[in-house]
Amino acid sequence: MTEPLPHCQAAETLADDQLPAGFRFGSTACGIKPSGRPDLSVITADRDAVAAGVYTRNQVVAAPVTWCRGLTPTDRFRAVVTNSGNANACTGPRGEHDTARMAAEVAQRIDCEDRQVLVMSTGVIGHTLPMDKVVTGIDAAIAGADHSASAFRDVATAFCTTDQYTKLHCTTAKLSAGTVKIAAIAKGAGMIQPDMATLLSVVVTDAALPMAAAQKVIADAASASLNRISVDGHMSTNDTLLLLARNEGTACSDAEDLSTLTDAIAEALIDLGKMIVADGEGATHVLCLQVDGATNDESADVIARAVGNSPLVKTAIKGNDPNWGRIVSAAGYAGPKIDVAKTSLSINGVEIYQSGAPISFDAATLSGSMKSASDVHIHLTVGDGPGQSRFWASDLTEAYVSFNSEYTT
Amino acid sequence: MTEPLPHCQAAETLADDQLPAGFRFGSTACGIKPSGRPDLSVITADRDAVAAGVYTRNQVVAAPVTWCRGLTPTDRFRAVVTNSGNANACTGPRGEHDTARMAAEVAQRIDCEDRQVLVMSTGVIGHTLPMDKVVTGIDAAIAGADHSASAFRDVATAFCTTDQYTKLHCTTAKLSAGTVKIAAIAKGAGMIQPDMATLLSVVVTDAALPMAAAQKVIADAASASLNRISVDGHMSTNDTLLLLARNEGTACSDAEDLSTLTDAIAEALIDLGKMIVADGEGATHVLCLQVDGATNDESADVIARAVGNSPLVKTAIKGNDPNWGRIVSAAGYAGPKIDVAKTSLSINGVEIYQSGAPISFDAATLSGSMKSASDVHIHLTVGDGPGQSRFWASDLTEAYVSFNSEYTT
Fold this sequence. Notes:
The structure is a homodimer.
Chain A: H1 9-12, E1 23-28, E2 40-55, H2 63-69, E3 74-86, H3 92-110, E4 117-124, H4 131-143, H5 149-159, E5 167-175, E6 178-187, E7 200-208, H6 211-223, E8 229-230, E9 240-246, H7 255-278, E10 286-294, H8 297-309, H9 311-318, H10 324-333, E11 343-347, E12 350-354, E13 357-358, H11 363-372, E14 375-382, E15 387-394, H12 398-405
Parallel strand pairs in A: 3-4, 7-9, 8-15, 10-14
Antiparallel strand pairs in A: 1-2, 2-3, 2-9, 5-6, 6-7, 10-15, 11-12, 11-14, 12-13
Helix pairs in contact in A: 2-3, 3-4, 6-7, 8-10
């Protein structure tokens, strides 16, 4: 069997009392992955709870996305079952049937209706699920589920596909009625340019949230975080981000509480998003892009995406090359109006292009600073407008190409 | 000195009588390129002629693009001077001054006005031109210019930057008043996703064309050819395509003649476009994409571009992997409406996805056919609408990444 997957730093030190009460976590290796690694997990709520989701905007969607879309937001949530190693995407009516059956198998074991169970799948596209293994896995995952930190960590592990380490983030938010806990999981690591959410991510909180509020919280948090990352600009068929909350306990309902909770969740998802980008297939750097001076925020976002997705920019960063011409020209073709005479650029705090013209800088020193750290900070000003955006992208390496030209053949 | 650049097949067999009369071709190595390869050329018209151009739509444009835009279309064209090895882009007022001086140095030597001389530059962004070398080069290129096939071929060579071979195409068009000759040059090989024209390309014909007609001919031909290719989806700052024609000789003015001429030029430019893609940095395959069934042609074009620019599709083709999931999912996120239930895909004539579901096929045989030829034919149907598009893209290889992460550092 393959070596166990390493954990992110937050997972290493996770304690039981960091997890929101009211949810149980179970996982197993049921044999979907040929490697024998964990590939099936279940998160259950002890009683009816709240779930809200945001999903891929790809028109080609996997069966579990269609299933979840029809069921969220809800205040009758009882469980979400997730398999990795197989996306159950482009699998036609058989795929839809298998998704419904996964929900039914869980529902039967925890005594609820099928429609109270959500389903997520991630992995290779176009293969039907080995349902006998899946059902055995559901049985084992539910039987072993508990409230512990190690169980939560194991669920994060069972989400992973080509990820090189698990990704979780636990935090708290101080609401007017008390402090609530937030625990979030995500997985990457290729076909990543979410337009509503990343591949798979679940946020669990013990805040008591009305379901409409939960939907707004997770949509707002996603647009500030996971919607702003890219590994390869290819939007997945399976992107799903779920927020699981409670119907009871610490209330979160006034505007200030909702804003506090949204910010805390967005921060957790930015941390997870950066981990996904850093763990992008073959990635050696995270491009941390800040664009300002655009006509509006939407324009800034389009420009940031164009820069972060340019193969010429991404290969330059891989080579620790402060190649400003590639960055400025990508901003120039992105689409939104820019003011070339007011365009300036700095990398890692060093100004290298100012008011539409290059300025002299110590290229060797700057290249050294790019080489010495994983994060490369690119700050691009494209005029004097109010629009700004942050975006995180991985660089492009030979290893990305090798990996993805050998993935299924 | 570096080895001489190989020629494309058409260049090997080029004869003097394939070239349109009335134009002279001169070139030299003036030292802009450290390699010592040819880097400066001049094409002159024996008397006032017609020139029309299409240019990059990047908002960040090189000084020579701004110069040419202000002067075309014209019926007083006398010369175009071109340097490679330095794009004269993002060089501020100094760059504009250097472009004007290049025109003036040519004008002085052939006895015309500065405004009768067009200028093109290609190469690295952000460095000012070594004008002493450029002026010496202009002197030598004009002194040696003649009507010969070898001189024309040498101009094609002097256009090249990271190209691995010269790219030219000679053909004829039968107009009502007689047969005209068409000779075209282009160069690639990175930062290629033209939105009006490719990096640098010149088409010379002995047809007598009114200048407004020339503008329409070259714009129409470009949109069917060079506007439909991509190496890396990164639009250049310097893209320029010029059509040079005559004020006298075989008339081309009625609608049928113009259509015949446009088609002949488009075919020449498709051939050159495919050469550019095949010679894309590190490329091992040309993805020949045909999309049909879209709502309209524009939608089909957007879908074809999304597929041709997806790093996951490009790496799959590099690995001879008929990974239909990546192709179909790229169509799904491109933007335009697709009808998933009527979506079908074939690669090299083998149907592998039909009406929204995978069908069984011999993957090993299909992979073998992809491996055995440079062109990979991808035919994607996305519904039953009338919209269709053709698009040509290079695959993505480790060599592209290596090359572009080492380009300036």
